[in-house]
Amino acid sequence: MEITYSLHEIRRVAETLVSDIPCKIWALYGPMGAGKTTLIKTVMQVLGSSDSVQSPTFGLVNEYHQENGDLLAYHFDFYRIEDPDEVLDIGFEDYINRDCRLFMEWPAKIGPYLPEDRADIYIDVIDANTRRLTFQKEK
Fold first, then answer.
1. N or C: which end of the chain has fewer CB within 10 A?
2. pLDDT digits (tens, 9 = 90+) for 91-103
3. For the whole model, what pTM was predicted?
4. Where are the alpha helices (DSSP H) in the chain?
């Protein structure tokens, strides 16, 4: 599926993705500044989280909760990963087996540890305010 949108339409895009992607693990691809974190922030709002969503670049992972305190999602940013084996040090295999959503930025950096059952979401920058998003569910 392909969606072209302006940044002020991101809520609609997030709602579409939440309804159309049944998979709990999302891998987001796109260049720096494409809006991966912005999209995840909006998806968290759609899912009912009131947590502040920021890129976990330095800590590698953030967790987000529903308003009642239940765990909703983990958000990974693998930008600083230099060796895919580094994800083993943070217990990545445990995270992917938990019953919650998982969002990954820069997923190509973890190579062989990328879960097979995931949705790949690609964001292309068209211009300063326009993005093209394509996605497919992997299995």
1. C
2. 999 999 998 999 9
3. 0.91
4. 10-20, 36-46, 86-89, 92-96
